[in-house]
Amino acid sequence: MHSPRCGDLVHVDVKKLGKIPAGGGWRKVGRSAGGRNARADKSNGELDKYYRPVRGYHFLHTLADEWAYARLYTSDRERCDEFPRWLHTYNYHRGHTALGGQPPATRVPNLSGQYN
User: Fold this and answer.
1) Tell me, what's the pLDDT at 110?
2) Separation CA 4–CA 57 (nearest Å)
3) Do 46 and 53 form a contact (C-beta atoms < 8 A)?
4) Most CB within 10 Å of its CB: which of 3, 21, 65, 109?
5) How far apart are CA 94 and CA 86, in angstroms?
6) pTM for the full model?
């Protein structure tokens, strides 16, 4: 048996989220209207080789259920704007079972950067 080391039991899930088209995606407005919004959204100015709008993706680590899909967003900007508030709650106020019910911020020394 080996002794535990930092990082021995780390597990990270990565979620690939398509950016939300202007007007809302299919989860908000249904598949038909969401498809029309996706085809019509030219907000980022990029087109694929078939001249269809390209929105791109966000790649997230173990956040999908609690932030990205916790409620319905009408735009990618709205979802992105919500992230800093959610991240603060997650790190400073949400208890984690792996940390004995404490938030991650309680486990990081010098989190505020006050000490050298």
Assistant:
1) 67
2) 36
3) yes
4) 21
5) 10
6) 0.55
Report the distance separating Cα 48 and Cα 61, nearest Å: 27
Q: Cβ(79)–Cβ(68) under 8 Å?
A: yes
pLDDT of 108 above 80: no
pLDDT digits (tens, 9 = 90+) for 17-74: 888 888 888 888 999 998 888 888 777 788 889 888 788 888 877 777 888 888 999 8
96 in Cβ contact with 104 (< 8 Å): yes
Scored b (16 or more CB within 10 A) or e, 68-89 reads beeeebbbbeebeeeeeebeee
Q: What is the CA radius of gyration of the chain?
A: 19
The alpha-helical segments, DSSP class H, found in the chain are 26-29, 31-40, 76-92
Residues written for the chain: 116
* Closest to 41 measured CA to CA, from 58, 25, 21, 27: 21
Rounded to whole angstroms, the Cα distance separating 60 from 47 reads 24
